[in-house]
Amino acid sequence: MKRFRNLRTRIALCAVLTPGLRLIVVLTLATNLLYAQQPTRADLVFKNGAVYTSDAARSWAEAMAVRNGRIVDLTGDVPRFTSLGVIANFQPLWAYADSYITDLTEPILGPERSRRLYPIGSVVRTGAVVVGGSDWSVTSLNPLEAIQIGVTRYGLDDAKRVSWLPDERADLTTMIAAYTINGAYLAHREKQTGSIEVGKAADLIVLSDNLFAIPVYSIHKARVLLTLLDGKEVFREPDFR
């Protein structure tokens, strides 16, 4: 963790400050970590590994926050995104009940903590800026797939179409913004790109379908017909005229 002079406190999640970029917080699995006591701020966060414990019922965790030598709860940090001007960077492609969730994650976290996994809707409702990522090359680079799952909270090919944690769904407009203008805002380039406006760079794509006019479960099937970067054509589907 780093101390940021322009903030009132250190951020108690995976805080990342890259050169020339705004402060972002990457929400990995749960914002409410194991063995938490009461909402507070953390001095140290461990993540992206296996934290083994002596509790037979919960033998390990993927993340852990510590303050004053005690493991702490980060639940109270969700409303602070807006007040602190922190950007939440999610990977929505993971936010559905696949085998990693049902077989590995939920049995360890338990039902109460599992309700806090990938809290996209909760963060959106605070008014915070939400950005979408891909975590490529671990997962798909296609933002349409992630946008669809962020809207539906079920798998791309899930015939049952039952949303996992439906309260954490986001609407289509929010998810498109997460992968366009909000990403530009994160990079301090919202005045140059990220939306189709007069005077901005012509960075855009043409899709085969209007995402607002097709079923939400078909969003990932839309094809990119044309890609412009700074007004220059860098991709065109052969049949597109």
The number of helices is 6
Report the sheet with the most strands, covering strand number, pairing sense and barrel closure: 4 strands, mixed
Computed Rg: 19 Å
Structural class: alpha+beta
In total, the number of domains comes to: 1
User: How does the overall form come out from the CA principal axes?
Assistant: globular
Tell me the strand order in the biggest sheet.
1-2-8-9
- N-C termini distance: 51 Å
Number of strands: 12
Q: What is the H/E order? A: EEEEEEEHEHHEHHHEEE
Task: Please report which band the strand proportion falls in: under 5%, 5-15%, 15-25%, 25-35%, 35-45% or over 45%.
Answer: 15-25%
Detail the poorly predicted runs: 1-21, 23-39
Mean pLDDT across every amino acid position: 82
Helix content: 10-25%
Could you give a quick summary of the protein structure above?
By secondary structure, the protein is an alpha+beta fold. It has one domain (14-195).
Describe the protein.
With 241 residues, this protein is α+β, with helices and mostly antiparallel strands. The chain has one domain. It has helices spanning 80-84, 99-114, 120-125, 143-152, 172-178, 181-186, and strands at residues 14-16, 24-26, 44-46, 51-52, 60-61, 64-67, 70-71, 87-90, 130-132, 204-207, 224-229, 232-236. It has a 4-stranded mixed sheet with strand order 1-2-8-9. A 3-stranded antiparallel sheet has the order 3-6-7, with no helix packed on it. It has a 3-stranded antiparallel sheet with strand order 10-11-12, with no helix packed on it. It starts with 13 loop residues before the first strand and ends in a 5-residue tail after the last strand.
